[in-house]
Amino acid sequence: MQLHQLKFDDYIHKMTNDGLCLDLGVGVFRFKSHITSVQQNVYEMYADYNITEDKPADFHACVKLAKGPRHYINPQVHFESDVVTPFLPLPKSQAFPLLEWGMNWCLSAYDFNHFILHAGVIANQQNEAFVFPAPPGSGKSTLTAFLAYSGWRLLSDELAIVTPDSLTISPFVRPVCLKNNSIKLVKDWFPQVKFTDTATDTTKGDVAHFKPPANSVKQINTPAQIKAIIFPRYMPNVPVTVFKLDIIEASEAIASNSFNHNVLGEEGFKTLVKLVENVPCVELQYSDVNEVATFLQNEEW
Amino acid sequence: MQISQQQRQLIQLFRHPDEVEFSNIDWEALILTGRQNGFLARLYYQLERHQRLEDLPQYAFKHLHSAKVFADAQRQQAIFEANEINNSLSAIEISPVFLKGTAYTLLDHPVAYGRIFNDIDVLVPKPLIEKTEKQMLLYTWFPEPIDEYDQHYYRQWVHEIPPLKHASRRTIADVHHNILPPISGRAPNIDLFTQYKIKTEYQCYVLSPAALTLHSLVHLFFEEDFSKGFRDLSDLHILFSTHYQDEKYWQQLRFLAYETGFTLELFLACHYCEAILQTAIPFTFKHELVAFSPSPMQLKCLNWIFLRVLQPSHPNYESTSYRLARLLAMLRGHIKKMPIRILLYHTGHKLIKAFERGILGRYSDTSSNLQPQPPDKNN
C-alpha cells in the first residue's frame, strides 16, 4: 500500500505511536513526529512510497519539540534517531528540512555497507547513471532537479549509494532539496511539481523540498550502473565545456566528496580505484541546464 | 530480577550463539539495544567465531556487518595513532604505555575485535606530564577549549590532563599519569602496574593482560556512568575467558589486586561476570576470592545496584528500579572518586552550569566540547 492510500487519520495515528514505516529501497525508515508541519510534509512528499507492515525498520527518524523554558519563546526542534540526537536543535520552522538532513545522517552513521558519495545521481532509459558529486553552490541540486523533472530517472539529489568494489549504484530517492534562487527557478520550470513551504534562514539559506517524480519512486529497488562521474560547476555565460580529469585528480575529487571511504578502509580504496579506472570523470562548466541535458544524451562516453 | 526479552536475547546471542533460534528474535529491537550498548560489532565477531553469520537474516547481517566495518576502521586508526604518539614521544625519550582499547588493539587481543572506543589512552609518569604535553602540542595535539574551572578540575584533582585532539585527524588522546584521580585517595602506586608493561609487535608498550584486566575492572567499579556498563562487563568476560588456562595471568591478577588494594573490585568483577554472563572463573581462584568478599549485607546492596546497571540497557525499557539503580551507581561512583567536601563543591558548580543551560537553551554554552556537530555535507 502506498502512503497516499492511507487515510490521513490513520497516518497521524502511526506517526504519533509506533511510527510509520516506509520502504526507501536502501532501507526501511521508521518515521515519528508530533509536529504538524512534519506530518503534512511527509504525507505529501512521500505519498508514492510503499508502507511496510512486517519488515523491521533499518533507520529511525523522529523530529520532536525541544523541552525547556525556551519552548515558550522560540520553540526549537530536535532530530532524534532512536535515542541519538546528532545535531543542534533548530527553529521549529525548519522541522521538515531537519528531518531530511537527519535521514541523510542515518545513512552516513549506520550504513558502512556502502560507499557513500555526496552527489546527485540521475539515470537514462538504459539504466546508466550519471553521478554529480560536488560541494554546495556548484549547482548540483538544480541540475539534478532539472533532469529529474525532464524525464530522467532520479536516483538521489544528495547521496550516491555505491556497492563497494563495483559500479553499481542504489537509488535513494528523496524529496529534492533546493536552496535560495534555485527554488524559484525550479518552480518556474516545473509548475506542476509539488513543493513544501520554504524554510528561511537555515544554515544553507532558504530551503524548500520538491516531491520526487512518481516514476523514480517506483524504481527504488532497481539499481543502475555508473556511466560517468561529472563534477558540475555553474558559471554564468559559458557554453558547456568539459575537462577530463586524470586518475589522480579524479580520485582526489571523489575522495573529498565521499562520506566514508576512510571508514571502509581497503574496500573504500578498491571502490575508488574501480571508479576512476572504469568510468570517465570530468569537470563540466555550464550556464544552461538544457545544454547539459543535450550533452549528456549525445556524448559518446 | 526481571530482565526484558531484548536483554536476555542479546546476552544469549553473545554467550550461546549456537543455541539461539534466529527466527524468534525481534531483530529491530535487538539491533537498537546492541547499538545503544556499543555491542553490535562485538556480536558480529562472536557469531563469526561460532560460524553463525550465514544463518543470520539479511537484515541482521547488514547491521552487524556495518558496525563491524566501523569497528575495524577504529582498530586500524588506533594502531596508527599509537605509533604516531609513540614516535613523537620517543623522540624526547619518553616511552608511553598504552591503556584500554588501544592496548587491546596493539596486543591483537580477542577483546579488541568489535570493541568501539572513543579515545587513545596513554600513560606517562607524572613528572613527565608537562614535557609530554608540550611534545604532543608540537605534533598538533591541541587541548579543546575548556573553562577555567574545568582546567582546575583536571590539574588539581584528576589523573589525566584535559583531552588532546589532533588538529587534522580529530582523534582524541587522553594522557594519564594514574588510573584513578589522586583526590580519591585510591590512586595506586602506578609503578606496580607499569612493572608489568610489555612491548608489542608495534614497538609500543602496553600493560600486560592481567594488569589491563585489573585496570578495566577498577575503572568499571569506580565508574559513575553506566551507559556502557554491559560492554565493559563483556570486556572482562572476554579477558577472563581468553586467559582461563593461563595460571600466570591469574597469579599476577591476584597479586597486583592485592598490592594495589583493589581486591574488592576484583571480587565484584568475577562475581558479576559469573552472575550476568556465566563466565567461567578457575575454581582455585574463586576459592581465593572468598577472602575478598564484602559482608553479606553489603553484597546484597551492591547486587541490587549492579545486577541492574550491568545489564544491556536501552531507554525504551528502563524500569523505575533500573533508573534508581543507575542513580545510586552514579552517586557511588562519584563518592568513590572524590571526598565529599570536594564532591559537593564540584556538584554545586556543575548544577549552576546546568541551570544556566536550562534557562538559555541546551547548547548556549559554547565552551562545552560536548556539543553535537551541526549538520554538514548534507545541504
Question: Could you characterize what this model shows?
Answer:
The complex is a heterodimer of chains A (301) and B (379). With 301 residues, chain A is of the alpha+beta class. Chain A has two domains: 3-110, no CATH class; 115-298, Rossmann fold (3-Layer(aba) Sandwich), CATH 3.40.50. Chain A is built from ten helices and 16 strands. Chain A has helices at residues 8-16, 36-45, 95-110, 140-148, 181-189, 214-218, 247-256, 261-264, 266-278, 289-298, and strands at 20-23, 28-33, 59-65, 76-80, 90-91, 115-123, 128-133, 153-156, 159-162, 168-170, 176-179, 199-202, 205-210, 224-234, 241-244, 281-286. In chain A, the strands form three sheets. Chain A has a five-stranded mixed β-sheet. A five-stranded mixed β-barrel of chain A has the order 6-7-14-10-9. In chain A, a hairpin with a 2-residue loop joins β12 (199-202) and β13. The model of chain A has no long low-confidence stretch (mean pLDDT 94). Chain B is of the alpha/beta class. Chain B has one domain (5-360). Chain B has a seven-stranded mixed β-sheet with strand order 3-4-5-2-1-7-6. Chain A: This is HprK-related kinase A. Chain A: GO terms for molecular function: kinase activity. Chain A: It comes from Neptunicella marina.
In short:
With 301 residues, chain A is an alpha+beta fold. Chain A has helices at residues 8-16, 36-45, 95-110, 140-148, 181-189, 214-218, 247-256, 261-264, 266-278, 289-298, and strands spanning 20-23, 28-33, 59-65, 76-80, 90-91, 115-123, 128-133, 153-156, 159-162, 168-170, 176-179, 199-202, 205-210, 224-234, 241-244, 281-286.
Total E-strand runs of chain A: 16
Low-confidence stretches of chain A: none
Query: Number of folding domains of chain A?
Result: 2
Largest sheet of chain B: 7 strands, mixed
Order of helices and strands of chain A: HEEHEEEHEEHEEEEHEEHEEHHHEH
Number of domains as seen in the coordinates of chain B? 1
Number of helices of chain A: 10
Helix/strand structural class of chain B:
alpha/beta
The total count of strands of chain B amounts to 7
Rg of chain B (C-alpha, Å): 21 Å
- Percent helix of chain B, as a range, is 55-70%
Number of DSSP helical runs of chain B: 16
The spatial strand order of the largest sheet of chain B comes to 3-4-5-2-1-7-6
CATH class category of the largest domain in chain A: Alpha Beta
Overall mean confidence score, pLDDT of chain A: 94
Class based on secondary structure composition and strand pairing of chain A: alpha+beta
Shape designation of chain B: globular
How far is the first residue's CA from the last residue's CA of chain A? 40 Å
